[in-house]
Amino acid sequence: MATRPYNFSAGPAAMPEAVLQRAASELTSWNGCGMGVMEMSHRGPEFMSICEQAESDLRELLAVPKHFQILFMQGGGLAENAIVPLNLSRGQTADYIVSGSWSEKSRVEAERYCTVNVAASTQEQGFRQLPDLQHARFSSSPAYVHLCSNETIDGVEFHTLPELAALGVDAPLVIDCSSHIASRPVDWSRVGLAYGGAQKNLGPAGLTLVVVRDDLLGQALPACPSAFNYKTVAANRSMFNTPPTFAIYMAGLTFQWLKEQGGISEVEARNIQKAKLLYGFIDASRLYESRVRPDSRSRMNVPFFLRDESLDDAFLQGAKEAGLLQLKGHKSVGGMRASIYNAMPLEGVQALVNYMRQFESANT
Ligand SMILES: *Cc1c(COP(=O)(O)O)cnc(C)c1O
Description:
The chain is an alpha/beta fold.
């Protein structure tokens, strides 16, 4: 098998090669049944078993407690920005913590459905550090508090989730965890609802994962579409309408792969090692720089800059020739970005660092 280049895309992102190979081998006939997964009824026994296995594997991997529902939905993180207030705002104010481009998008969308209070924002600091929630201005009784636990574009990550009760806030915490779900354990005692598009760290685009506490079901506004009402989706075990069957299957294969790797704690240890290697190299170099405050840096998305921007194009061209793909930074931030999700092996980060070192010595 020829080795593939290392793909640092922020999303849709690289998937484990073993998962892709397995799916390829089953594409025309799943488990010898004579049908591919894309061709099966979502209500037939074959797909039901795939879906139930995916759900129970995810529950086990992330230690999701029994009083949370796991929902397989569609529409991505951006649709959830509307679906969350439609389901949870109850005509009240919702508090938003703005720590980067994605949580800012969430805030803007929520304004269409409810009153929004920005409890904290680091926009003036250029989204280079986590907000100080000790000094946040929460409203008196928000319907919920929303934050993005890993800002994919800005490279800022909450390494611990806030305990709202300890901050004097009696409200569920809603997290957009699209780009670091399954990269580390989740403290469910601090979470009311978590959502994420699958295409960063779980599987292909088209599947949106929602994990929601039971007591938050059944409060949707009348205008909420039935297919986006969490209670309806939960009551129908994610089969109110046709779910994204192939994407669920691919995510299920990824969950099995994660279990084979030793589970989330082992995967987290590798992610820490990968991030340490890359940030350590960047901080020690004279050509590259990270602009995110060290305590706020994401383990998954590493934006970095060449101090001499005129070298950007040559850097990217050389990277491509060295088998290191999709390193260009997001257009709103510029520079470079290396996304090093679960599927990126340590060897990929080592190859990136080796290339960056060679490029630096050839150009300074
Ligand atoms: C990618 C991303 C989204 C958007 O997801 P879509 O599936 O394109 O709607 C939302 N939030 C975060 C944190 C993301 O990384």
